[in-house]
Automatic annotation (TrEMBL):
Residue span of region Disordered: 1-32
Phylogenetic classification of the source organism: Eukaryota, Fungi, Dikarya, Basidiomycota, Agaricomycotina
Highest rank taxon of the organism: Eukaryota
Basic and acidic residues: compositionally biased ranges: 18-30
Compositional bias (Basic residues): 1-17
Protein name: F-box domain-containing protein
């Protein structure tokens, strides 16, 4: 099934390195050959201007490299920006050239590290071109984010276990409490993620946790939950008792996305009480499950789910009765089934009157399913000149990640109720 991939940062993100992460300190002032001291702020402004004027990230990197090699005065600030974001494609020439420079002087500048082409243990004799031990994690004192992607840049992972070397190195070398973000879709056991026990500042976590022990405890490998007091965004492959107990016991997660199976664990009411976004687009939701979700997460503003077949793929009146309890529900997306595609625009406008019972609801996305490019219908609510709510339907192609991002931005910027058109 062709699902829309989770939102990933591109290999390079133009402009992310600008800001206090690359700011100079007053002690970084440089002395020209004439003896004149150039303030660090001036040096930083010169380098920033070169960076800003570049037409692309590739050009910016090329210009920064030239600055770094042309002047000792500019070298430090140019390298500070150039190495703040590192793409490390294992087995490629770029990685082989980058590693020695990181070890010699630039590892301290790295803020965002993306590791590509990581996968299972290679056959004997082929390990040398895939080694990650060249990365000096112990020198990356300013590291904030690590992303790890599979072979083939995010393709489906096979049954082989991932190479544990990277995670051993992270456990041994990474400084405590510096990460705010960790993204990895490889299927990992809790023991392979043990380095995260020393990263209590994590705010965004994306992980595919494979059960290897139980919350009830195991004599050989006792269960140990991860403590993330600042965790606010969590993306997981599946949500069950084990995953919830591992990541959400001591957290107040605000945004939760589940790629596959979703079940409500024990103590879900306490774990999900702060949720404002719940994305379970590929998990069929029964009436019973929907009632439990609404009861446990009363503050939901964005809700994405798939109707279980027991709803007969129709908008049952009881569905609105349940959703009406979510007083802050602002954006709703539902996968309905084939009925949704066979319903004309006028019928959707009629259904909109039922959605009006959800007083805070602003937009509704209805589709057969949420596969990328699938036909969908949106209903957008506006207040007309008579101060009454109108719903305007239109057909679109499904791009669920983009739709969710748009709703988050709209809600974030929205200070007043929907204004008249």
């Amino acid at each position: 099934m062709k699902r829309e991939p989770r939102s990933k940062k591109p290999k390079t993100q133009r402009g992310r390195r600008v800001g206090k992460d690359t700011a100079s300190s007053r002690d970084d002032s440089q002395r020209l050959g004439s003896g004149m001291v150039v303030p660090a702020e001036i040096i930083g402004m010169i380098v920033d201007e070169v960076d800003f004027q570049a037409a692309s990230q590739v050009e910016a990197n090329r210009l920064l490299c030239r600055l770094a090699h042309s002047s000792r005065v500019l070298q430090k600030e140019a390298e500070r920006r150039l190495y703040s974001e590192i793409n490390f494609p294992i087995g490629e020439l770029m990685a082989q050239k980058t590693a020695p420079i990181l070890r010699s002087r630039t590892a301290k500048y790295v803020r965002y590290l993306t590791i590509w082409n990581y996968g299972p243990v290679l056959r004997r004799g082929r390990a040398s071109d895939r080694i990650v031990s060249a990365l000096p994690f112990h020198l990356m004192t300013g590291l904030k984010s690590i992303e790890v992607y599979l072979d083939g840049e995010g393709g489906e992972f096979d049954s082989q276990s991932p190479d544990p070397q990277l995670f051993t190195l992270l456990d041994q070398g990474l400084q405590e409490n510096i990460l705010t973000e960790f993204i990895c879709d490889l299927p990992l056991r809790s023991s392979e993620l043990s380095f995260l026990h020393k990263q209590r500042g994590i705010r965004f976590l994306q992980a595919n946790l494979v059960p290897s022990d139980s919350p009830d405890g195991n004599p050989d490998e006792p269960f140990r939950p991860f403590i993330f007091p600042k965790l606010c965004k969590l993306n997981v492959n599946g949500m069950d008792e084990y995953t919830a107990s591992s990541f959400m016991t001591e957290s107040k997660v605000v945004e939760l996305s589940v790629m596959n199976g979703f079940t409500t664990p024990r103590n879900w009411a306490s774990m999900a009480a702060n949720l404002q976004l719940l994305d379970i687009a590929f998990s069929p939701v029964t009436r019973r499950s929907l009632k439990e979700i609404v009861r446990c997460s009363p503050h939901l503003q964005i809700f994405v789910f798939k109707l279980h077949e027991e709803w007969s793929m129709h908008l049952d009146a009881t569905l609105i009765d349940i959703l009406e309890e979510l007083k802050n529900l602002n954006a709703l997306a539902m996968a309905l089934g084939i009925t949704a595609l066979e319903t004309d625009v006028q019928s959707f406008a009629t259904l909109a009157r039922e959605f009006s019972r959800c007083r805070a609801l602003h937009t509704v996305l209805l589709s057969y399913d949420f596969q990328l490019g699938q036909t969908a219908m949106t209903l957008d609510r506006v207040i007309n000149a008579e101060q009454k709510a109108d719903w305007f339907p239109q057909r679109i192609e499904v791009h669920l990640g983009q739709w969710i991002a748009e709703q988050l931005m709209r809600i974030y910027n929205q200070k007043d109720p929907v204004k008249p058109s």
